[in-house]
C-alpha cells in the first residue's frame, strides 16, 4: 500500500513537468531541450537558498524565476538570434550544467539534512507516510492546471494557441509570434524549475545530474495521457497529462517489482515512451480497434 501511495505522490509531483512541456511541445510546437537544464537549475537554486536559511516557499519561487530566465535565453536565441530550435535548447541546457555547479558552490550535490523544507510543516508531518508528497503534489498541480486553463481562455491565451497552430496565419492577423514564443518558454521552464525545487525538497538533496532523462519522463506523461484517454479537449488534455504522470509512475513501480535494476530506469523510460509513441500505428496496422470493437459487440450480444 505504501508503495502505491508513494507512486501517486511522485506522479503528482512530476506532473508539473509534463504540463509544462505540454505548453511548448504540444501547444507551441516547440521541441525545447532546455528542460534538462532548468530542472536541476531549479533544484540547485532552491536547495542552496534553503541551505543558506531562506524560507522554502520563497526558495521555490526563486527556482521558478531561475527557470523562467533560462527559458527566456532559449527564446531569445531562437527568436532574435535565429538559432535553430533544438540547438538553442541544447546551448542553454549545456550552460546550465556549469551554472548549477556555481550555484551549489562547486559541489555536485547539496543536502537538505536538518533543514526546513515545504515538506517539514506540522500538518504534513502529521499525515501517514508518503501522503505529504500526495498532498503537496495535488495542491501544486491543481493550481498550475487551473491557472493554465483560465489563461488559455483569455485573448492572450488564444493568441498563444494560434501561434502554435499556424505561425504564418498568426502573424497575418497581427499576433507577435516572437512574444508568444518568449512567453511560452518562460512560463514552461519556470514551472519546470519549480518542479525541480519541489522534487529536490522531497528527495532531500539537489544533484547536478538529476536532469538527465527528465524530458523522457515529461514526454511519457503527455503521450500516456493521450494514448489512454484518446480524443479530448485542450483543457481535458491538461488533466490527462497529470493522470498520465501517475500511470507512468505505476509502470515504473511494476518494472522495479519485476526485478529490474534502478540504474536501467532511463533505458526503460525510453522504451516505455517509444512503445506509447508507436501504439497508434501498431493499433492501426494490427487492426486492434476493430478486434476490440468486435469483442465488445460479441460480449454485449451474449
Tell me the number of helical segments per DSSP (H or I, 4 or more residues long). Answer: 13
Backbone CA Rg? 20 Å
Shape: globular
- Main sheet makeup: 2 strands, antiparallel
How many domain modules? 1
CATH first level? Mainly Alpha
Number of strands: 2
Strand order across the largest sheet = 1-2
- According to CATH, what is the topology? ABC transporter involved in vitamin B12 uptake, BtuC
What share of residues are in beta strands?
under 5%
Distance between the ends: 37 Å
Helix- and strand-based class? mainly alpha
> What is the helical fraction, as a range of percent?
over 70%
Give the SSE string: HHHHEHHHHHEHHHH
Q: Mind telling me which CATH architecture this is? A: Orthogonal Bundle
Uncertain residue ranges: 291-301
Name the average pLDDT.
86
Protein name: ABC transporter permease
Subcellular location: Cell membrane
Organism: Lactiplantibacillus daoliensis
Membrane topology: Multi-pass membrane protein
Amino acid at each position: 500500500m505504501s508503495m502505491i501511495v508513494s507512486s501517486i505522490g511522485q506522479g503528482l509531483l512530476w506532473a508539473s513537468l509534463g504540463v509544462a512541456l505540454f505548453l511548448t511541445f504540444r501547444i507551441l510546437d516547440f521541441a525545447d531541450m532546455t528542460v534538462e537544464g532548468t530542472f536541476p537549475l531549479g533544484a540547485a537554486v532552491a536547495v542552496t537558498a534553503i541551505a543558506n536559511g531562506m524560507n522554502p516557499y520563497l526558495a521555490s519561487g526563486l527556482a521558478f524565476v531561475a527557470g523562467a530566465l533560462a527559458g527566456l535565453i532559449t527564446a531569445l536565441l531562437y527568436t532574435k538570434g535565429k538559432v535553430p530550435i533544438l540547438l538553442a535548447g541544447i546551448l542553454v541546457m549545456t550552460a546550465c550544467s556549469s551554472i548549477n555547479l556555481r550555484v551549489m558552490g562547486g559541489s555536485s550535490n547539496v543536502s537538505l539534512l536538518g533543514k526546513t523544507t515545504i515538506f517539514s510543516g506540522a500538518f504534513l508531518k502529521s499525515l501517514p507516510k508518503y501522503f505529504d508528497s500526495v498532498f503537496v503534489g495535488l495542491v501544486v498541480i491543481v493550481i498550475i492546471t487551473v491557472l493554465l486553463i483560465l489563461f488559455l481562455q483569455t485573448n492572450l491565451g488564444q493568441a498563444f494557441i494560434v501561434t502554435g497552430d499556424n505561425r504564418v496565419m498568426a502573424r497575418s492577423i497581427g499576433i507577435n509570434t516572437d512574444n508568444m514564443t518568449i512567453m511560452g518558454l518562460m512560463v514552461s521552464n519556470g514551472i519546470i524549475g519549480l518542479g525541480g525545487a519541489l522534487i529536490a525538497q522531497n528527495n532531500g538533496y539537489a544533484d547536478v545530474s538529476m536532469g538527465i532523462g527528465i524530458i523522457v519522463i515529461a514526454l511519457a506523461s503527455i503521450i500516456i495521457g493521450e494514448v489512454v484517454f484518446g480524443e479530448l479537449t485542450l483543457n481535458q488534455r491538461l488533466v490527462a497529462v497529470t493522470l498520465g504522470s501517475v500511470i507512468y509512475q505505476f509502470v515504473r513501480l511494476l518494472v522495479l517489482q519485476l526485478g529490474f535494476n534502478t540504474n536501467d530506469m532511463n533505458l526503460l523510460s525510453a522504451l516505455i515512451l517509444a512503445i506509447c509513441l508507436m501504439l497508434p500505428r501498431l493499433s492501426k496496422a494490427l487492426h486492434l480497434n476493430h478486434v476490440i470493437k468486435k469483442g465488445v459487440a460479441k460480449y454485449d450480444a451474449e
